[in-house]
């Protein structure tokens, strides 16, 4: 049995693949099935360690990205996609997997096209409240379509809506349970103060970092801060925060990291009273499963078509507030953190988060992948 994963240009697109792979392994072990061969076909491996630890083989397939802004790179993107489709065709012809799981994004297009030509069954999953062009394209010939937001269903053509299942977003099993102890002691935070966890997406956010640093003296007057800056931003944030901490005597209440590993993020989530985050669908699902009050700062719609709609869809539950990037100031951010840190407000928001995310999403998709894969192996 062979299963191919495709699509994964960001952490939000990539890590649900890992969650589904984990679920496949559990189901296979429970039912004593033959271990399937798993492959990830994409322009980049994104997280080679996660692929290796889940025994997923990576095969590079080039893909052209169509940017939403003017760029000369858009002129060559169709040619890269064409070459990627040719390469994907021969790779899939050689492997001939039993089913393909596509998460959308530009990196999935060549693989989905080649799978269509070869007649390989496809399951497509849309994480966001507004489907991407890659997902809408693949949905036309997908065997099954999984979605995370009910509000995304009307965007799909009516003729494919009968294939749609509301599954939620697959989240790695370890992420469903934050660790309640460890971060406060390990980082030397003040246990008498609330803690805010700031995550600017898998690559970090310069804009969020700038606002946090400008508002840091105010925030540290009433809270601890755990700040994931992004690898490329860490040097600058460390330098600037070092000056601020000396003048505010905030040392011990602020900890910055270029990137939080799985275990570090679980400990940080366990310590956090409030989470400030971008509004990627996977990040929202993780925060909802943690049952943590959230301040969501979506990427502007001119850059990302989905984050703003994701943010407001989640905020309607009462579990989060949305701060638009162009309207956010250091004072507004600090004021919202302080307001939400109030136990009564935080408690109500935590309760509102219950039931939004489905901790079994990965298993639901894994079961359907295995069902299709096994039926694909049966003689016609």
Describe this structure in words.
The mean pLDDT is 90. The longest helix has 23 residues, at 73-95. The protein has two domains: 2-171 and 359-377, Glycogen Phosphorylase B (Rossmann fold, 3-Layer(aba) Sandwich); 175-353, Glycogen Phosphorylase B (Rossmann fold, 3-Layer(aba) Sandwich), CATH 3.40.50.2000. α1 (11-31) crosses α14 (361-377) and α7 (206-220) packs across α12 (330-341). Strands 3-2-1-4-5-6-7 form a seven-stranded parallel β-sheet, sandwiched between helices. The chain contains 14 helices and 13 strands. With 380 residues, the protein is α/β, with parallel strands linked by helices.
Number of discrete helical segments: 14
Mean pLDDT: 90
Low-confidence stretches: none
Q: Class of the largest domain in CATH?
A: Alpha Beta
Helix content: 40-55%
What string, H for helix and E for strand, traces the elements in order? Answer: EHEHEHEHEHEEHEHEHEHEHEHEHHH
Instruction: Assign an overall shape.
Output: globular
Could you give the distance between the termini?
A: 16 Å
Sequence of strands across the biggest β-sheet: 3-2-1-4-5-6-7
The count of β-strands is: 13
Structural class by sheet pairing and helices: alpha/beta
What is the fold named in CATH at topology level of the largest domain?
A: Rossmann fold
Q: Going by CATH, what is the homologous superfamily of the largest domain?
A: Glycogen Phosphorylase B
Instruction: Characterize the main sheet.
Output: 7 strands, parallel
Strand percentage, roughly?
5-15%
CATH architecture assignment of the largest domain? 3-Layer(aba) Sandwich
Overall tally of structural domains:
2
Compute the CA-based radius of gyration: 21 Å
